[in-house]
Amino acid sequence: MEDYIVRAAAANTQIRAFAAVTTNLVEEARKRHGTSPVATAALGRLLTGGVMMGSMMKNATDMLTIQIKCSGPIRGLTVTADSQGNVKGYVHDPEVILPPKNGKLDVGGALGQGVMTVIKDMGLKEPYSGQTILQTGEIAEDLTYYFATSEQVPSSVGLGVLMEKNNTVRCAGGFIVQVMPFIEDEVLNKLEQNIRNIQSVTSMLDNGHTPEEMLAQVLEGLDLEITDTMPARFYCNCSKERIEKAIISIGKKDIRSMIDDGEDIEVKCHFCNTAYHYTVDELKELLKKSR
Ligand SMILES: [Zn+2]
């Protein structure tokens, strides 16, 4: 199955919903960063939440970033998505290994305590930014809490990443369901009842459910209407020129010391791990451009 996002409404627009299958893009992230199973699960959940949240934004140039800083061994995660289904991200320690908890990857243990910051750059002078404390570190609950407290939108978030025995990604995906302020009590009751009774996201995906079928379960009996679908992918817009700007910005002193070392340097993009090489002569050119 190709990765894609579904946008939907239910109960005559009293509910809006998003669902995605992200198996390929999470596997792409795993390969690029060489993440351990628990790091793959953490990053995969955040990439899945991020790509759906990106798709909530209106303009093609809008960018959404979710940053987690935490005290657990993974230390932090960053995911950036646009509104077109493109997402990229990384974790601070990709090699973290923890014993399983209740037979599952211990994502909450990898994150520990911390803070989640959501930044939406919509081309305005100041980007929107909302910060919340991590609730469980399992990411879905943390995003639910973010929506409730920072955006005041009651939501239910389900995210799942299931690994193969050989530590590649077997399946990944999730959903976000949000209720509008004018929701009727009986609609809300029905939705809450559905959410109590659904299977986990990983079992739905593992049973071959599409995003549409996941939403059909979550919104069973609530007049689900699929509004549109769009492809999702791991995509990084880095280039040698963009990385050059980052080198220039570190300042003359540091560039000079790299030149004095007399060796070519390699700089890797945080987001996609692509390596860029600069010769001493190229560094000398960058020195001229720096302040
Ligand atoms: Zn990159």
Give a short overview.
This protein is an alpha+beta fold and 291 residues long. The chain is 35% helix and 30% strand.
Q: What does the model show?
A:
This protein is of the alpha+beta class and 291 residues long. The protein has two domains: 4-234, 3-Layer(bab) Sandwich (Hsp33 domain); 240-289, CBS domain Like (Alpha-Beta Complex), CATH 3.90.1280. Helices cover 35% and strands 30% of the residues. It has helices at residues 23-33, 37-54, 107-111, 140-150, 185-197, 201-206, 211-218, 240-249, 252-261, 280-289; strands spanning 4-10, 15-21, 63-70, 76-82, 86-91, 114-121, 128-133, 155-163, 169-179, 225-231, 233-234, 265-268, 275-278. The strands form three sheets. The chain has a six-stranded mixed β-sheet, with helices on one face. Strand 3 and strand 4 (76-82) form a beta hairpin. Helix 1 crosses helix 2 (37-54) and helix 9 packs antiparallel against helix 10. It is globular and about 70 Å long. Bound molecules: zinc ion. Zinc ion binds at residues 236, 238, 269, 271-272, 274.
